[in-house]
């Protein structure tokens, strides 16, 4: 998929090509400047053995928002090597990419790897969301590894791996997810982010307190709660060492994660002309 | 090559490097009720070893193997440490470790406040230790620090806690071996295993007015 400027302040899709299970559909009203594309799951999976690729290119001055119509469900399938989804994205100077898909659900018995490589050139802007649910309702988590590298101006800005499931030592212990079965992250990269997300302008406050939302997230409220239950969205928003920030939330289920992260992903109100 | 006694000096909790002031994220999880006994401490330490333990060991081994990579490794740890509170804690410990290390060996110039694993690796190189050895010291440090903090915070039986550490020692060795084997990789390919609750906990912990540990 290639988004580029149309030369009159808008964005056009020079390439939009996909095949099952990753179908791409241009959707939504025409907005000034940007286009929206939905990823539509054209088949079950990913299943073990699947090797999937998604390449995204946002050119100078172009603005692209990518959503998905439904959660992605990683399933066991036949005995085969791990399924793998590799996403590469580049955002040129003056370009904007918002990746806000529905969660990935790691069904019991799945073996899935998501590799994300995003390169934002100096002057580009990025909002990158990834939500994860560890197992469907009432079942254990499958094996899943998220391997993410987001760079800005040629330098690694955020490098992170998260492994959950039976093979990941300590993943359900109090250092990684505890009793949380859903987690989500939003990474924003670029300068001038205050105008880029609705929450951006509040980031100065977040940066001071280091916290956001957080029903029950205040330490002390649950001191001595034996059994260590996750009682609310435990979330923090963190200024990265480079130009950008990360918001992370861990919750008993995806609703608590969404409550913490959704407000950060809203489009900013249009500036009155 | 230096001998085992040198490695023991570097891994000794009595090394005056300020490590006792940090709980490596444990205090936040104790307060949240997630760590409350020896069993939940075990789960915490396993998660630590698999995430920040592996990353610290790989970066310490990489720095020890080639001290000219220290600046790039320091940037790599910045990208792997989204929590500003944890970046600050790591740099404070790196600075304190460097101060102790400079009194002991001729350590390469690393700037004033390197991340702790980079400082540890450079000290090990100056002491004549190998990447494999310093990886063991790094992995060992990621569990012994919070284990001793747990005894103080929760009043746990120190014998039971050390029995737990003895059970984790082979895991520590495996993590260190994996880390050392990957230590020659490009910085972007080095381990980057993260732990969301450690990041979130560190940020909340940094806002407390009263706390026993700096991190």
UniProtKB/TrEMBL annotation, chain A:
List where in the cell it is found. Answer: Cytoplasm
Where it mainly occurs, coarsely classed, is cytoplasm
Which keywords has UniProt assigned to this entry? Chaperone, Cytoplasm, Nickel insertion
Answer yes or no on keyword RNA-binding.
no
Q: Record's InterPro entries? A: UreD (IPR002669)
One Pfam annotation, family name?
A: UreD
The yes or no answer to whether the keyword Chaperone is present is yes
> What residue intervals traverse the membrane?
none
The record's comment on protein family reads: Belongs to the UreD family.
Q: What is known about what this protein does?
A: Required for maturation of urease via the functional incorporation of the urease nickel metallocenter.
On assembly, the entry states: UreD, UreF and UreG form a complex that acts as a GTP-hydrolysis-dependent molecular chaperone, activating the urease apoprotein by helping to assemble the nickel containing metallocenter of UreC. The UreE protein probably delivers the nickel.
What is the protein's given name? Urease accessory protein UreD
Please name the source species.
Actinoplanes palleronii
Coding gene?
ureD
TrEMBL record, chain B:
Matching InterPro entries:
UreF, UreF_sf
The keyword Hydrolase is assigned to this record:
no
Q: Kindly report the protein's main subcellular placement as a broad class.
A: cytoplasm
UniProt entry tagged with the keyword Chaperone = yes
User: Per UniProt, which keywords does this protein have?
Assistant: Chaperone, Cytoplasm, Nickel insertion
Subcellular compartments? Cytoplasm
Q: Which domain of life is it from?
A: Bacteria
Which Pfam families does this UniProt record tie to the protein?
A: UreF (PF01730)
Q: What does this protein do?
A: Required for maturation of urease via the functional incorporation of the urease nickel metallocenter.
Self-association state and partner proteins as the record states = UreD, UreF and UreG form a complex that acts as a GTP-hydrolysis-dependent molecular chaperone, activating the urease apoprotein by helping to assemble the nickel containing metallocenter of UreC. The UreE protein probably delivers the nickel.
Which family, according to UniProt? Belongs to the UreF family.
> Under which name does UniProt file this protein?
Urease accessory protein UreF
Species of origin: Actinoplanes palleronii
């Amino acid at each position: 998929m290639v988004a580029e400027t149309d030369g009159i302040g808008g964005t056009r899709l020079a390439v939009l090509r996909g095949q099952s299970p990753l179908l791409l559909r241009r959707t939504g009203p025409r907005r000034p400047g940007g286009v929206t594309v939905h990823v539509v799951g054209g088949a079950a999976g990913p299943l073990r053995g699947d090797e999937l690729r998604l390449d995204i290119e946002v050119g100078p001055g172009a603005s692209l928002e990518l959503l998905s119509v439904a959660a992605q469900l990683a399933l066991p399938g036949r005995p085969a090597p791990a399924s793998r989804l590799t996403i590469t994205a580049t955002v040129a100077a003056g370009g904007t990419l918002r990746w806000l898909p529905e969660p990935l659900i790691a069904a019991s018995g799945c073996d899935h790897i998501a590799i994300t490589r995003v390169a934002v050139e100096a002057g580009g802007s990025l909002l990158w969301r990834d939500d994860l649910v560890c197992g469907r309702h009432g079942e254990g988590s499958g094996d899943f590894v998220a391997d993410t590298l987001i760079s800005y101006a040629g330098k690694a800005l955020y490098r992170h791996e998260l492994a959950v499931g039976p093979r990941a030592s300590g993943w359900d212990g109090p250092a990684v997810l505890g009793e949380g079965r859903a987690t989500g992250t939003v990474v924003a990269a670029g300068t001038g982010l205050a105008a880029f997300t609705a929450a951006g302008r509040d980031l100065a406050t977040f940066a001071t307190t280091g916290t956001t939302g957080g029903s029950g997230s205040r330490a002390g409220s649950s001191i001595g709660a034996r059994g260590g239950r996750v009682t609310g969205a435990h979330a923090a928003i963190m200024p990265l060492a480079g130009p950008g920030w990360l918001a992370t939330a861990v919750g008993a289920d995806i609703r608590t994660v969404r409550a913490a992260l959704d407000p950060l992903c809203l489009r900013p109100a249009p500036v009155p002309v | 090559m230096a001998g085992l006694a040198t490695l023991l000096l570097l891994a000794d909790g009595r090394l005056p490097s300020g490590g006792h002031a940090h709980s490596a994220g444990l205090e936040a999880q104790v307060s949240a009720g997630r760590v409350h006994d020896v069993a939940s401490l075990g789960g915490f330490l396993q998660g630590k070893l698999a995430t920040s333990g592996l990353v610290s060991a790989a970066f310490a081994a990489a720095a020890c193997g080639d001290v000219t990579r220290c600046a790039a490794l320091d940037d790599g740890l910045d990208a792997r440490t989204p929590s500003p509170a944890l970046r600050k804690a790591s740099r404070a410990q790196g600075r304190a470790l460097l101060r102790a290390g400079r009194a002991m060996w001729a350590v390469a110039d690393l700037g004033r406040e390197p991340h702790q694993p980079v400082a540890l690796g450079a000290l090990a190189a100056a002491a004549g230790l190998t990447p494999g050895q310093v990886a063991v010291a790094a992995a060992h440090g990621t569990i012994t620090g919070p284990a001793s903090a747990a005894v103080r915070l929760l009043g746990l039986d120190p014998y039971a806690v050390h029995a737990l550490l003895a059970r984790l020692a082979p895991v520590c060795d495996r993590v260190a071996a994996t880390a050392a084997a990957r230590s020659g990789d490009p910085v972007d390919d080095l381990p980057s295993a993260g732990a969301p609750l450690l990041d979130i906990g560190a940020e909340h912990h940094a806002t407390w007015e009263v706390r026993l540990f700096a991190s």
